[in-house]
Amino acid sequence: MTALLETKGIWQRFGGLVANSDVSISVGRGEIVGLIGPNGAGKSTLFNLIAGVYTPTQGSIIFDGEDVTGLSAAERCERGVGRTFQVVKSFETMTVIDNVIVGALIRTTVMREARRKAHEVLEFCGLAGRANTLASQLIPSEKRRLEVARALATEPKLLLLDEVLTGLTPIEAQTGVELVRKVRATGVTVLMVEHVMEIVMPLVDRAIVLDLGKVLVEGKPSEVVRDPKVITAYLGD
Ligand code: ADP
Ligand code: MG
């Protein structure tokens, strides 16, 4: 079967800076893939290119058999690219349920249906008891789960997770890991950007390591962590 996502020879320049250089990756249907690498490696840039925040300087992005390179972020979301956002200020003044309804309204204009979907997703993410709480009142780990819930409410085929496990306590991170596994069990493909290898490696089927804007290594987590190139990149010499 063809991959769900493919980037083909992606280049992204910001002025004179090359943030992604000739990046070709693929993510198979049903996989959990980790995108890792040191700070400044180009992970967030690639993530934003896939989500449609930027259009690449060169190269193309194929999603679910269609070239989406020229499509907006909203158009990609409609096609099934879901992503987490940091909870922005305006959303902080809204309740948890209303935040998730915003996501659900991508699929339906019927408010009752959007509300039903939002409740279902909150239950799935372990936030049912927080539905009527203001987003600003959540603890950091709950905010991360709210971001996941809002993305899931858009009914994605591919869920892009941006460092959702970073900065959590070990117990909170474990809850997050279990949530990602549960998401995949529903048939959603996951591409997750994480800075910290210890968190992602036990979770992912495959890891792609970026360094200096390029794919350095990719493979099974057990192989990747032992790769001398990866060790050197992380030690920064
Ligand atoms: P990572 O997420 O792996 O830490 P980024 O993709 O954020 O790396 O950044 C890669 C490089 O691109 C960095 O040198 C960063 O400063 C630069 N960069 C990222 N976004 C922009 C932007 N919008 N404008 C200019 N430079 C950027
Ligand atoms: Mg980043």
TrEMBL record:
<dbReference type="InterPro" id="IPR051120">
    <property type="entry name" value="ABC_AA/LPS_Transport"/>
</dbReference>
<dbReference type="GO" id="GO:0015188">
    <property type="term" value="F:L-isoleucine transmembrane transporter activity"/>
</dbReference>
<keyword id="KW-0547">Nucleotide-binding</keyword>
<dbReference type="InterPro" id="IPR003593">
    <property type="entry name" value="AAA+_ATPase"/>
</dbReference>
<dbReference type="Pfam" id="PF00005">
    <property type="entry name" value="ABC_tran"/>
</dbReference>
<dbReference type="GO" id="GO:0015192">
    <property type="term" value="F:L-phenylalanine transmembrane transporter activity"/>
</dbReference>
<dbReference type="Pfam" id="PF12399">
    <property type="entry name" value="BCA_ABC_TP_C"/>
</dbReference>
<dbReference type="InterPro" id="IPR032823">
    <property type="entry name" value="BCA_ABC_TP_C"/>
</dbReference>
<dbReference type="GO" id="GO:1903805">
    <property type="term" value="P:L-valine import across plasma membrane"/>
</dbReference>
<keyword id="KW-0813">Transport</keyword>
<keyword id="KW-0067">ATP-binding</keyword>
<dbReference type="GO" id="GO:0042941">
    <property type="term" value="P:D-alanine transmembrane transport"/>
</dbReference>
<dbReference type="GO" id="GO:0005886">
    <property type="term" value="C:plasma membrane"/>
</dbReference>
<dbReference type="GO" id="GO:0005304">
    <property type="term" value="F:L-valine transmembrane transporter activity"/>
</dbReference>
<comment type="function">
    <text>Involved in beta-(1--&gt;2)glucan export. Transmembrane domains (TMD) form a pore in the inner membrane and the ATP-binding domain (NBD) is responsible for energy generation.</text>
</comment>
<dbReference type="InterPro" id="IPR003439">
    <property type="entry name" value="ABC_transporter-like_ATP-bd"/>
</dbReference>
<feature type="domain" description="ABC transporter">
    <location>
        <begin position="5"/>
        <end position="237"/>
    </location>
</feature>
<dbReference type="GO" id="GO:0005524">
    <property type="term" value="F:ATP binding"/>
</dbReference>
<protein>
    <submittedName>
        <fullName>Amino acid/amide ABC transporter ATP-binding protein 1, HAAT family</fullName>
    </submittedName>
</protein>
<dbReference type="GO" id="GO:0016887">
    <property type="term" value="F:ATP hydrolysis activity"/>
</dbReference>
<dbReference type="GO" id="GO:1903806">
    <property type="term" value="P:L-isoleucine import across plasma membrane"/>
</dbReference>
<dbReference type="InterPro" id="IPR027417">
    <property type="entry name" value="P-loop_NTPase"/>
</dbReference>
<dbReference type="GO" id="GO:0015808">
    <property type="term" value="P:L-alanine transport"/>
</dbReference>
